[in-house]
Amino acid sequence: MNKNQHGGNAEALADALGLPECPAIALDFSVNLNPLGPAPAIRRILWQSEGIAARYPDEYAADACRALAAAHGLLPEQVVVGNGSTEVFGWILQALRPAQVGVVEPCYAGYREVCDANGIPMTRVMTLSAEAQFRLAETPELPDGVELLFVGSPNNPTGVTVSCDVLLALATQNPHCTVVVDASFADFLSDPMTVSPPGDPLLENMIVVKSLTKCFCIPGLRLGMAWGGASLMDRIRQVRLPWSVNGLAQELALRLYADDAYLEQTRSQVPSLRASFATALSSLPGVTVFPSEANFLLVRLPREWPAARLCKALLKQGILIRSCANYEGLGEDYCRLAVRPLHEQQQLLTALSELLGGEHDTTTPGPTKRPAIMVVGTTSDAGKSIIAVGLCRLLARQGVRVAPFKAQNMALNSYVTREGGEMGRAQVTQAHAAGVTPHTDMNPVLLKPLGESGSQVIVNGQPIGNLKARAFYAAKAEMRRAAHEAYDRLAVQYEMIVLEGAGSPAEINLMEEDFVNMSMAAYAGARTVLVADIDRGGVFATIFGTLALIPPRYRALITGVIINKFRGDVSLLESGIRDIEAMTGVPVLGVLPYCRDLGIEEEDSLGLERPRGTGGTALDVAVIRLPRISNYTDFQSMEGDRGINIRYVERVVELGTPDLIILPGTKNTRADLQWLHDEGITDALHKANAAGTPLIGICGGYQMLGTSVADGEGAEGVAGTTAGIGLLAVTTRLTDQKELAQVQGVTEEHLPFCPVGTPFHGYEIHAGESVATGVGSCPFTVTQRRHANVREPAGDMSEDGTVFGCYVHGLFDSHVLRSHLWRWLCQRKGIQEDQVSVVEASQVAAFDRLADSMDQHLDLGPLFNGLIAPLGN
């Protein structure tokens, strides 16, 4: 192998190992960079890169010197800045021209390279032993002629620091020798300045050199610095050439140490990642892991697995590690492994356990590993939910046991599971597409907005209270933990998980607390697809902007982009697709056409903006679009029926003269009831009913139709009582107690449009109790609640049979009930019944149409290859 081989050069390693070609590298443990990815400041600089690249940088990086000096508590004249630490080492040798350079082995191979390049001999001062865990605990005696000594702290490749006492002793006991402390990895320490002895003025025979590319993960830009006594630094400045530090690196130097959050996160997370990695590696047979304080670990290998053999075996799997064969004092028994994120560690550990034997510790923090795909979107309503439905269906058709998952949903559209838990309906639809039973683990956190009073927070299917925005953010750690635990439970039960994000994954003001989008993808190790809605316009700008704002460590998870909802000739997009792929490095997996009348539930009420119904005009149904409308899917089945026109109205002038008016559910009954009064809709409903128009109220709509709604406990916000619409003799009292149940039952003889005993099923989600106060009749009887047989009256009806309401959601999913309702309305209107008909829409058929369209128009290979057998195209 090449004696000067560094990490990160896969081509050279493959050639040295005799491989005919270099495999694609999926994991790189050979270079020691921050596992958190580049510092956030790099993105801001790159956005300005065109302007910076078009002008000359400062010849000697004066502003960068001042900024870095201030960050280290130094004076500008005590600092020089160069194009990486290797260039600074060269300057030091050129300026001081030592007769001989000494090193403590094992050490960074670059010391020999820079000595050879400058024609200066290098000698070993001492060799640290594995028995002493490679710790330099005492001052070595320097041979005659050694006028400069390189000391790594933390040392590369051991990760061990040298105490300030030893460094001070080296400098003071050898005044003829300049001690060069290589502190390239010092920023990973809790106190980086411990690498140099305190003193003012600085020691005249000590120089500290630091690479800024390691901690800040910017090796492509190259940036290094040195500090020492002013006279030493003056000598180094004399040998510099101008413009060695490029403009981007200079601009970045001004900002690196201003990002306290990034440094704190680094110094908090790297030790934790290192500890878990070391523990797992130590469990492998024949492996010894040495203590380290840096972002890498030195590992001694089993005798039967020398470094060259292990490097070759792993490289064939696309995994790069650093052999220590070219480190004096180590050799083929050793390798160095960078500390990487948990999901990368798990992949390496799995590969190592297969090669070396034994099993690595599967209790390493993180999710149970299952293949996973995450769907995120450039905006809300980009089509994430529908794409997730299609993916679930495609996978299920391949025989994969797949489950959907969304860590947190904000929606008023919810569903009650068999166990009596509440979850978002989008994941219910995805579960049906996957052919599995919905469970609250698929949507562990559900937020139901309450308006100014905040949101009702539902965790694992049960309400835990109403929280305003600030209180919710304070509780985010608990929500995150609940989401991760739910995901882990699903991952045990299913072969694959399809995750859905929320809103945009690039909300930079929320990214730190966001546990729904890219951080969840990272937790699951999910291949991620970005969905962009072209129907809204600006699709390429939203793709570019979203990818630009996602931090690099998360952007690496994005496998491709889907352009959704396209109408027209796809060839018109080809040049734009080529450009966006070139600019972002992320492939476009395809363009999905706008799917009309798909018949799959929308995630939220944004979908109500689009026209509804079949366009028929035989019967006109007006649904009052309340400001806080919930469970509007109660009427989705009606939209597919022939001859039915469904309109969502929110103003009196829009009401017209419909054949039926429906008051839907709401998340805040009293607030929406007051809105009806204020907008004049209450009066309009009275007039319509007096003219013979029937009214139906579901859940909150049922409560509003009564004479009053009282909230003595402030369950919905401010306590008080609001007068009802007054079309049903019912009073409602709201409470904090929530009824969540699936129910079955039959119709009663008083219901005018349906024969007695007609079965129905649905679910109840309500907080409150409604009590009849007049002579109205009960239209339904519940015969089963959850799993118990009961006999309970349900709902109420006016004396003339034109107004009725109940708490049961999903009532009109029954094609039998809908058929009777349409027939009754036709008779009342005096039109032929054959002008309308119930369409028994098949959810399965809708799922398959969507899956077929995705299979036809998208290249899903990058998402599925290696996870499951190849799909369709």
Explain this structure to me?
With 873 residues, this protein is of the alpha/beta class. It folds into four domains: 31-35 and 262-356, Aspartate Aminotransferase, domain 1 (Alpha-Beta Complex); 41-258, Aspartate Aminotransferase, domain 2; 372-407 and 423-437 and 476-593, Rossmann fold (3-Layer(aba) Sandwich); 605-835, Class I glutamine amidotransferase (GATase) domain (Rossmann fold), CATH 3.40.50. Helices cover 31% and strands 22% of the residues. It contains 28 helices and 41 strands. The strands form ten sheets. A seven-stranded mixed beta sheet has the order 2-8-7-6-5-3-4. The longest helix has 23 residues, at 260-282. Mean pLDDT is 89; it is low at 362-367 and 869-873.
Oligomeric form: single chain
Question: Pairing-aware structural class of the strands and helices?
Answer: alpha/beta
Q: By CATH's scheme, which homologous superfamily of the largest domain applies?
A: Class I glutamine amidotransferase (GATase) domain
Helix content: 25-40%
The count of domains is 4
> Order of strands side by side in the largest beta sheet?
2-8-7-6-5-3-4
Average pLDDT over all residues:
89
Number of strands: 41
| Number of helices, counting only DSSP H or I runs of 4 residues or more | 28
Coarse morphology: elongated
Poorly predicted tracts of residues:
362-367, 869-873
- Radius of gyration, rounded? 34 Å
Which features characterize this protein?
single chain; 873 residues; alpha/beta; Aspartate Aminotransferase, domain 1; Aspartate Aminotransferase, domain 2; Rossmann fold; 4 domains; 7-stranded mixed β-sheet; 6-stranded parallel β-sheet; 28 helices; disordered C terminus
